[in-house]
Amino acid sequence: MTHPAHTPASLPATRSKTTFPAAGTTGRARRARVEPMAVRPLRDGRYAVETAGGTYVVDPDAHTCTCPDHQLRGARCKHRRRVALEVTAGLVPPPGKRTAVCAVCGGRTFVPTAFSGPALCPRHDHRVGALVRDRETGDRLVVVGAAGERADRVETAEGRLVADYPTNADYGSHEPVFWVVYLDSLGRDGDVRRYAFPASRLQRIDSEGATHPDAGPTPTDGAASTTTA
Q1: Which of 27, 50, 54, 184 has the highest CB neighbour number within 10 Å of its CB?
Q2: Cα 208 from Cα 7, distance rounded (Å)
Q3: What are the residue boundaries of the SWIM-type domain, all occurrences included (predicted)?
């Protein structure tokens, strides 16, 4: 089974008005949930909230809104409450972050506003120290770093791009590269060599040694080879 390379998809610039369940709330808290609103993040960390009565701008850091309820009464209006609801639910990025697409699955994720490299969703990201499995060989590896660049831009110590290795042909050349070491090499004397792999070639392993069911595709049938850093 091969892994189709996912390319970043375009994201809608606007959202349709939606509602939340009332959840036993009253007053402004209830209106924030049941009234149709569309929340759109702005580039400066504020949010535009479109309602039937007009569009207002919420600034979470300053705890302000341009609506009359806040301007005249100083209230924590329904617009501010709605922004908090949507940020908590993961429907819009929190302040300081923007929406991006995962380089592996094409799903939506949030990254720091100034982030410029290929993005990964939490399901396909690998933290330093994580135990993973090489899909091609089944070997267990430990993640020691992230290159922060695409597989078609990162060179190994052999002077070859990570994406050019035959065993990486079924993994997206646009995927971020991670540096890993072989788990069994950590107990040996001498230098431990690190290797470079595209993100989706690495399958996460949980604390009990089982592979993560949502971590990506199954290994290919091709012969395995290492990609040396």
Answers
A1: 50
A2: 33
A3: 56-88
Residue appearing with tokens 């070997």: 139
CB atoms within 10 A of CB 119: 22
**Rounded Cα gap, residues 220 and 135, in angstroms:** 7
Q: Where are the strands (E) in 24-150, listed by range?
A: 38-41, 47-51, 54-59, 64-65, 97-101, 108-112, 131-134, 140-150
CA 135/CA 199 separation, integer angstroms? 11
Dump pLDDT digits (tens) for 154-213: 999 889 999 999 999 999 999 999 999 999 888 777 678 999 999 999 999 975 556 555
Model pLDDT for residues 63-109, shown as the tens digit of each residue: 999 999 999 999 999 999 999 999 999 999 999 999 999 999 999 99
Q: Strands 97-101, 47-51: parallel, antiparallel or unpaired by DSSP?
A: unpaired
Whose CA is closest to 49, among 24, 84, 22, 88? Answer: 84
User: Token pair 């998809």 is at which residue?
Assistant: 9
Contacts 24+ apart (CB under 8 A), 211-217: 211/133, 214/123, 215/123, 215/124, 216/3, 216/104, 216/105, 216/124, 216/135, 217/1, 217/2, 217/3, 217/135
Domain boundaries, the chain: 27-89, 130-204
CA 93, 98, 101 angle in degrees (round to 5)? 100
pTM for the full predicted model: 0.70
